[in-house]
Design a protein that fits this description.
It is built from 12 helices and 14 strands. The protein is an alpha/beta fold. It folds into 2 domains: 220 residues, Response regulator (Rossmann fold, 3-Layer(aba) Sandwich), CATH 3.40.50; 147 residues, Response regulator (Rossmann fold), CATH 3.40.50. The chain starts with 10 loop residues before the first helix and ends in a 16-residue tail after the last strand.
């Protein structure tokens, strides 16, 4: 029986692998990064490039003050000091465009591995292309749980997925109930993509299991020009907690429409994505002061992990911004992928896959609140512990779980 750790690509897969140069002649290792670099989510792609450039700098040049994978030396020692180089492709948020660009990066650019992609629907298509060519795909910031449940051997995700994220949300709601807070009704609001439907399915199930009543269950068309009807329904239902799942443009439209129609929820717990984006916070953050989002990262983690502040300085020098939930995940995904390539001592896809499958990085050697980075046979890291963040006074602070919290939650976010 083939296992994830023991799997070696069969003849059909091996035939599709592009020719690779000998490991002992490698001067650089190319990694294909697929992101939206145009369209409504273009800023996400721009920020991701800064995160990857920061990670590549740490790999390629010595950073002795950082306790992170590959930070101490220069290049990839397992490949004679070869440097990591990223080649970017613009998928424009379109899964078919993503698939085509993945094929181009693999067959024409001869990349060693792929990383991406922000939108989960695009990741589904890109990872299938990578699988056909026996090329590792590192899911940097995609959160749909269905992605790692398709039996793929070359798919890896170091960060949490939406089932893990939603579970911590409901753990938080349960803790509020135990303290005497009135939390009985929920409103689900989600886009009609794999990201939205996966998130809503999990939250719907957890609501039933934990004894919460859904008074709104609204699916909307992604990138819609208007959300007036949907917001009017949310306002009429007036749930104790609004739980939205949206990307940036829709998140901004939602909050602006809420403001125009006079709807201010008692509390919001968001599925990150658009709600963690700097563009969203700059546009409408003040309109929903004290909203909560799930997350993988917060700058206040620097109190426990010194590398956080140092990496943030490097990232900010490139981008003019602080790290956020998305860019922190992208940064760590690149380091984890580079570490796997280094330990493989090869640019051959199957050897990199095996090295990634054997990953075991302590959480203390990351910038995340994770216990460690390991991969199950599905390619998922089960130890990527999520947190909840509250946006107060222009910044995010960690409020849950209590053992990592640096502030008590403001609840409800609105007294109106």
């Amino acid at each position: 029986m083939l296992t994830r750790r023991g799997f070696m690509g069969g003849s059909a897969l091996a035939l599709s692998v592009p020719a690779r140069v000998r490991a002992d002649t490698v001067q650089e290792v190319t990694i294909g990064a697929l992101y939206p670099l145009s369209g409504a989510s273009a800023q996400v792609g721009v920020d991701a490039k800064a995160a990857f450039a920061t990670a590549a700098d740490i790999v390629n040049t010595p950073h002795p003050g950082l306790d992170l994978p590959l930070a101490k030396g220069e290049g990839l020692p397992g490949l004679g000091g070869a440097k990591a180089r990223l080649i970017y492709a613009d998928h424009q948020g379109d899964p078919q465009k993503g698939r085509a660009e993945a094929e181009r990066l693999i067959t024409q650019e001869k990349v060693t591995a792929l990383i991406g992609t922000y939108q989960s629907a695009v990741a589904a298509a890109v990872s299938q292309a990578a699988e056909r060519h026996a090329i590792p795909f590192m899911s940097a910031d995609n959160s749909s749980p269905s992605l790692h449940r398709r039996g793929l051997k070359y798919f890896f995700r170091a960060a949490a997925h939406d089932e893990m994220f939603s579970t911590v949300m409901f753990d938080f709601l349960d803790s509020l109930r135990k303290k005497g807070e009135k939390v009985e009704t929920l409103a689900l609001f989600y886009e009609d993509t794999i990201f939205g439907t996966d998130s809503s399915n999990i939250q719907r199930r957890l609501a039933g299991e934990r004894g919460y009543k859904l008074v709104s269950d609204i699916k909307y068309r992604a990138n819609t020009p208007s959300l007036a009807t949907e917001v009017q329904q949310l306002k009429a239902d007036n749930a104790d907690v609004l739980m939205p799942t949206s990307y940036t443009a829709d998140s901004i439209l939602l909050v602006k429409t809420m403001s125009e129609l006079g709807y201010r929820p008692k509390a919001i717990i968001a599925q990150s994505a658009g709600f963690a984006d700097r563009a969203f916070l700059d546009a409408v953050g003040s309109k929903i002061e004290n909203f909560i989002t799930r997350g993988s990262f917060s700058l206040d983690l620097a109190q426990k992990r010194p590398s956080v502040a140092k990496v943030n300085e490097l990232f900010k020098a490139r981008s003019g911004k602080d790290l956020n939930d998305n860019t922190a995940r992208e940064f760590m995904a690149m380091l984890v992928l580079a570490d796997g390539i280094n330990r493989a001592k090869s640019t051959e896809g199957s050897k990199i896959r095996d090295a990634l499958a054997a990953t075991n990085i302590p959480g203390s050697r990351t910038i995340m609140p994770w216990r460690k980075v390991v991969f199950e046979e599905t390619g998922q890291n089960p130890d990527a512990d999520p947190v909840l963040l509250q946006y107060s006074g222009g910044r995010f602070v960690t409020i849950f779980p209590e053992q990592v919290a640096v502030a008590k939650p403001v609840w409800p976010m609105s007294k109106s």
